[in-house]
Design brief:
The protein has about 220 residues and is mostly beta strands. It has two domains: about 5-145, Elongation Factor Tu (Ef-tu), domain 3 (Beta Barrel), CATH 2.40.30; about 155-215, LysM domain (Membrane-bound Lytic Murein Transglycosylase D, Chain A). It has helices spanning about 75-80, 140-145, 165-175, 180-185; strands at about 5-10, 15-20, 25-30, 30-35, 45-50, 55-65, 95-100, 100-120, 125-135, 155-160, 200, 205-210, 215. A seven-stranded antiparallel sheet has the order 2-1-7-8-9-6-3, covered by helices on one side. Strands 4-5 form a two-stranded antiparallel sheet. The longest helix has 9 residues, at about 165-175.
Length: about 220
């Protein structure tokens, strides 16, 4: 059974075309961004998750029109044109790249053409196009797919050796600057005055300081 052809579909029009030859391989990449946060009293910074990056798909497409002796650019241009701004969208089109189990909703981020064989008159008949697609997720879809958790209920914590209120705030709130709600909830006047084994209440956010009425969100 012949291997199915990889295809590219323009989402808003439904127009689709198959690649001339399937790629020999492809790379699918995903990474996260982290920021380092220096916490007083700790020997090294703490990494804080900032955001995830979109997946990227990279592959090399091969085109050859030697047998028909036609200009291969008529074929490669189908791919390159996906970088153009669509007059209806005022942006390049959203695409769907499909090849077997590979299914990616994306936009074309880069296309690098390399022509490697030519007719007598100089017209190219063979080309390799290195393409990079970036995953496309609209805000509505992101809101449905991402489950966001918040510090909306009180928790208990036992102080460990080397802990500071800032470090504990980072652990539960992902923000070391939010140590004051923990101090207020436990009647701690000196933020450095905690000891290993001490039981602390970590309040929910937003937190209203009973002494001042100040709200911390």
């Amino acid at each position: 059974m012949a291997l199915a052809k990889a295809s590219i579909t323009i989402e808003h029009t439904g127009a689709r075309f198959d690649v001339m030859f399937n790629p020999e391989e492809y790379g699918l990449n995903k990474d996260n961004n982290y920021a380092s946060q220096a916490i007083p009293g700790l020997g090294s910074p703490i990494l804080q998750f900032v955001h995830g990056n979109l997946r990227t798909l990279e592959m090399e497409l091969f085109f050859d029109t030697t047998d028909t002796r036609t200009d291969v650019r008529a074929e490669t241009q189908k791919v390159v044109d996906l970088l153009k701004i669509d007059p209806e969208l005022h942006a390049p089109p959203v695409l769907r790249v499909a090849w077997g189990s590979l299914q990616l909703r994306c936009v074309l981020a880069r296309a690098n053409q390399k022509f490697i064989k030519f007719l007598e008159d100089g017209r190219p008949t063979r080309a390799r196009v290195t393409v990079s697609f970036s995953e496309f997720i609209d805000p509505e879809r992101e809101a449905k797919e991402v489950s966001r958790q918040t510090a909306d209920f009180s928790k208990g914590y036992t102080v460990q050796r080397g802990d500071t209120l800032s470090a504990i705030a980072f652990r539960f709130y992902e923000d070391p600057a939010l140590w004051r709600p923990i101090a207020a909830a436990n009647d701690i006047d000196d933020p450095r005055g905690i000891e290993p084994g001490q039981a602390l209440k970590v309040p929910a956010l937003p937190f209203t300081d009973p002494a001042t009425g100040e709200v911390t969100s």
